[in-house]
Design brief:
The complex is a heterodimer of chains A (119) and B (110). With 119 residues, chain A is mainly β. Chain A has no helices and 11 strands. Helices cover 0% and strands 55% of the residues of chain B. Classes of the chains: A mainly beta (119), B mainly beta (110).
Chain lengths: 119, 110
Amino acid sequence: QVQLQESGPGLVKPSGTLSLTCAVSSGSISSPKWWSWVRQPPGKGLEWIGEIYHTGNTNYSPSLRSRVSISLDKSKNQFSLMLTSVTAADTAVYYCVRESTYGSSIDYWGQGTLVTVSS
Amino acid sequence: EIVLTQSPGTLSLSPGERATLSCRASQSVSSRYVAWYQQKPGQAPRLLIYGASNRATGIADRFSGSGSGTDFTLTISRLEPEDFAVYYCQHYGTSPPRYTFGQGTKLQIK
C-alpha cells in the first residue's frame, strides 16, 4: 500500500514561492508511474497542477505552467512542487497523488496540506 | 479542454434510497478516461470507479458507473449512512491538463 505524505510551510506571503515535498513510502518513486500534485481551494473543487514521471519528464496545467515546477529526488524517494508569484487565489489544500494501477485515474492520495497565502 | 458539468449540485436523499449522479462532458470522450471519486469532509478523495464502469479495489458493489459519449452516471443502489459525501467525476486527458474534474455533487441526508 503506497503512502504519500506532504510537507512544507503552511503560510506563504503574497508574491512569494510555495514549496512542498511529497515523501513516498511503501513504494518507489522510480516505478513507471506518473506522480502529480492536485489542489483544492477551501470549499471548492479539485484542480490538477502537474505531474512527473520516474524519468523526470514533466507536464503542467496550461493555466499554471508559467509558475510551476515539479522535480524528483530518487535518493530520498520524494518529489516536490514549486509555485512562484503566489496570490490569495493559490490558497488551497495541496495533495500529492499517484496515477492508479488501472491508468487514467488516481488511486493514491496524500492526506493533503493546507497552504495559506497571506501577509 | 474538456469541461465536466455535474448535476445536481446537491442531492438530498434518505438511507436506503437510490442515488443517481450525473456528469456531462463538453464534448464526446472515451469512457476509458472517466472516473468517479468520493470525498468526505477533511479527507482526500477516494477512487470509486475507473473506465466509467469499473469498480476500484475494495469498493462496495452498490456503487456502479455507466455512460458513454458525453453523459456519465454514478449510481448508488441503496444508500448507506457512510455514503453521504461529495462526489466528483474526472476526465483523463491525453495531453495536459491531465486530469479535469467536475465541480462536485454533494449527497446529503434528507
